[in-house]
Amino acid sequence: MAEVKIAPSILAADFGRLFEEIRDIDQAGCDWIHLDVMDGHFVPNLTFGPPVIRAVRKASSKTFDAHLMVTNPDRLLETYREAGADIITVHAEAADHLDRTLSRIRDLGCRAGVSLNPHTAEECLRYVLDRLDLVLVMSVNPGFGGQSFIPTVVDKVSRIREMLDGRDVEIEVDGGITPDTAPAVVAAGATALVAGSAVFKGGSVASYKQNIEALRHAVRDL
Length: 222
What we know:
Blueprint: E1 5-8, H1 18-27, E2 32-38, H2 50-56, E3 63-69, H3 77-83, E4 87-91, H4 98-107, E5 111-116, E6 134-138, H5 153-164, E7 170-174, H6 182-188, E8 192-195, H7 197-200, H8 205-219
Helix pairs in contact: 2-3
């Protein structure tokens, strides 16, 4: 099994020095940069949009992993691609025509992802499996960082891995990921981990590197 990807969520970064924070987690050895985009409508929080992503794109050449927690994502896809997103993930709950949305993301040259809230059954993926590059499983209710991990998502990850039936699709898990919770989701089939507070605690490149290595160590032998 390839090494699990670590995708720090910049929601937990110091927004007053966001460019430097992204540069620091890059130097600390992360794999992806996870961008939690919230519109204050689909979720009860408002974060940032394309102008901010465009401004920090030069801080890292690593994969920009844009998680769109927004209503009507279709009207925004091209804007996020132009801002520098490499992966664009939309919520199944927000996409009226999921097959079409995923096809459009790929047409733009991005990898296409679908995110599922904790209450959403994986069955909604059944007829778009060949349009997917990534499934993002929420292990908290989206909208705020620092929440506790919902353990019932572990079985969901297992079912999604079985449903994918060998397809080359990443399963990413987001919410409450720490060295204590990461092993269960990786053992179930996750290949990428989003971590905010668990990575950004300490406030320095050295501490970020230590935190990323702690996550890698926790899942290394699974």
